[in-house]
Amino acid sequence: MAIMDEGQDGSKSQTDDQQHARDDRGVVLLARPPIVYLISILVGFGLNAVWSVELVPHALEPLGGLLILLAVALFVLSVREFRRARTPIRSRKAVTAVITTGPYRFSRNPIYVSFTLLQLGLGMWANSAWLVGMLIPTLVLMSYGVIAREERYMARKFGDEYLQYKRAVRRWF
Q1: Residue 31, number of CB atoms within 10 A of its CB
Q2: Residue 5 CB neighbours (<10 A)
Q3: In terms of DSSP H, where are the helices of the chain?
Q4: How many CB atoms neighbour CB 22 within 10 A?
Q5: What pTM value is reported for the model?
Q6: How far apart are CA 173 and CA 170, in angstroms?
Q7: Mean pLDDT of the chain
Q8: pLDDT for res 31
Q9: How confident is the model at residue 19 (pLDDT cuts 50, 70, 90)?
């Protein structure tokens, strides 16, 4: 909690350090996106080890590798846009810009799309219905527990600039 100093006129003010300290995206530590997807993938592999349920005909398994490559490419392009905008990627740090270029022209969350494609690709490659099925609770948690909070943060921080972007670009793809 930031401490506010009272000025001579009775108004409240904050130092830049105090503002930065409380200017996070509201993402709970346990709901950090890479952790959410990692847990989902590990649980999917674990369930598959206990009770294997195939997802696709064996001839389609190699398509999983293509999805994995697509996921990696999308992630790299998305990170590049964060670096170009000189804004932090980590959800525990304050964002300094609304990114609307590169993959962000088509999705407000291309990094999360890349994580989803990675898990889907791993599920197809491993031919595991469990791994793909774990995407259902993962996507629910991401949509309501992570993205919704991030969107409220972005709307508070950037106002109309973000709201216009949000109206123009889909959440996922």
Answers
A1: 16
A2: 10
A3: 16-22, 33-50, 62-85, 110-125, 129-133, 135-141, 148-158, 160-168
A4: 10
A5: 0.82
A6: 6
A7: 86
A8: 67
A9: very low
